[in-house]
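User: My instructor asked us to take a sequence, write out its structure as tokens, and then describe one feature of it. I'm not sure where to start. Here is the sequence I was given:
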Amino acid sequence: MLSLTYISTASVPFEPPEMTALLRQSRENNERRGLTGMLLFKEGRFMQVLEGPDEVVRERYDVIAADPRHTDVRTLLDESIEERRFPQWSMGLPGPADDELRRAPGYDSFFETPARRRHSWEDPSRAQLLLDWFRRRA
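Assistant: Let's start with the prediction itself. The structure tokens for your sequence are:
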């Protein structure tokens, strides 16, 4: 199985309605393909960890890299894993004003909880450490 972490810059504004649509679309697409992970959005930047079968992760990454809604797509981590660190796919962003987004399946309160808050992160993966770095960056 593959774990791939990338970062990118939004090329269009992402307001709560667009974020809600992105969350729903991504969750459906990833569930159908057997992908898990986490997508974070902060100050116009995305960071995502994708986990799943190698070919599926690479195909999805190629689609993401070609998506005109963001630019400067860079791989930060590409590693084989024995088991998933993220059992489902979710998305987090700091302080969303939209209640619909907060209630959407797959929304994660990642930015609202202390760093390394998850018990499963006792021995964090490099991908999880990158997510914590993204949370703290200015």
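For the description part of your assignment, you could build on this observation: The mean pLDDT is 84. Try explaining in your own words what that tells you about the chain.
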